[in-house]
Amino acid sequence: AQSVTQLGSHVSVSEGALVLLRCNYSSSVPPYLFWYVQYPNQGLQLLLKYTSAATLVKGINGFEAEFKKSETSFHLTKPSAHMSDAAEYFCAVSGEGAQKLVFGQGTRLTINP
Amino acid sequence: DTAVSQTPKYLVTQMGNDKSIKCEQNLGHDTMYWYKQDSKKFLKIMFSYNNKELIINETVPNRFSPKSPDKAHLNLHINSLELGDSAVYFCASSRSYLASNYNEQFFGPGTRLTVL
Asked: Which of A59, A64, A79, B31 has the fewest CB atoms within 10 Å, i.e. the most exposed one?
């Protein structure tokens, strides 16, 4: 069975600072990994996904994530935070067979001016 | 053009009532899903349908009955609503039902259900 742990339910950074949102997964098979963003009162939007073509994955809005098999991690980063990045971020994993996304508990990102 | 749409956006009702939430996707996808997001923002899959056929049913009470009249629509009917059903319900769709790095799910805007 797959599971996801997001360390830190709330992360606060200053505008222009590095954003680091942590995600560790547990999977008995090579996982399919995704990061989604949820802006207030909206649905989820895909930020990026791990495709196995490269361990460093670039997504939308300047975000990227690095897949580290040895650490079972897929942390999300952005070099310079912008006020518009304030949102809830979800890491998700799916195993093989019928796709069933298992989500982490989410990390709320706050950007301080 | 909205890819995945849900109606209504908000639903407030009394305990014991029956209500439905509708979902439509215009992406030409074969697979659709229902997720429940609770008050702590935790997201959990409820059902998935592939081309009108039930694929996943995740230990959801029988009061919840999904219906897929065609592959572009997946509705959720809830009988005898309880206080604990209050949540945001998200519909999603994907190209196919098979797990894949390329089979990402597209989510609707959500329906906030409040049971009084």
From this structure: A79
